[in-house]
Amino acid sequence: MPPRRIGVLGLQGAAVEHRDAVERLGHVAVDVRRPAHLAGIEGLIIPGGESTTISMLLESSGLFDPVAGLFAEGMAGFGTCAGMILMSARILDGRDDQRCFGVIDLAVRRNAFGRQSESFEADLEIPALAESELGSEPFRAVFIRAPYVEAVGDDVEVLARVRGPGGDPHPVLCRSGDHLVAAFHPELTPDLRLHRLWLG
């Protein structure tokens, strides 16, 4: 695969780790902080962080509408934690004026697994990795003030689930077309398989 130019939203959150993952896989990582930085990118990663803060910075930087336009034109997206929230169709407990990109038909709840002190790790069985010849070993997922999915659209494939505080399993890794979203932080582990799955 020839190197691709992949944007990583650099307004807040774990952008450095995502850029490192992209570059370790042989692609060009572009730090996106202004609309001009979107030129020529073939996909955009929206990292974890604080979804309300990132959404406000998207508006104040003038990035929200250009990014939404690129998504409407078919640009691929990978959202992790806060990025999953912002790429979803509905935020169940966001601000009244908070916009999301709506590129994947999910309804998500912010901080659904609890506070920072209730962060945890879990080994996820992700059959899609084996199907893509990326290995069948469990993926060690890091959940930090993580959201989860409460409703899934018909065109969305659920790739992994984790039990929530009430004991019910909730989707935490979903895919729809060229879009991949995770409730956890794959960029905080050395395992590059989810970045490779999306880039592939």
Can you tell me about this structure?
The chain has 200 residues and is of the alpha/beta class. It has a single domain, classed as 3-Layer(aba) Sandwich (Rossmann fold), CATH 3.40.50.880. It is built from 6 helices and 12 strands. The strands form 3 sheets. It has a 7-stranded mixed sheet. Strands 5-6-9 form a 3-stranded mixed sheet. Strands 7-8 form a two-stranded antiparallel ribbon. Helix 1 (15-24) links the parallel strand 1 (5-9) and strand 2. The mean pLDDT is 92.
Q: End-to-end span in angstroms?
A: 8 Å
**Rg, nearest Å:** 15 Å
Number of individual domains: 1
Strand order of the largest sheet: 2-1-3-4-12-11-10
CATH architecture label: 3-Layer(aba) Sandwich
Oligomer classification: single chain
CATH superfamily: Class I glutamine amidotransferase (GATase) domain
* Largest sheet features: 7 strands, mixed
Number of strands: 12
Number of helices: 6
Percent range of helical residues:
10-25%
The 3D shape can be described as globular
Low-confidence stretches: none
Name the CATH class. Answer: Alpha Beta
Structural class: alpha/beta
* CATH-defined topology: Rossmann fold
In percent, how much strand structure appears in the residues? 25-35%
Question: What's the SSE pattern?
Answer: EHEEHHEHEEEHEEEEEH
Mean pLDDT: 92
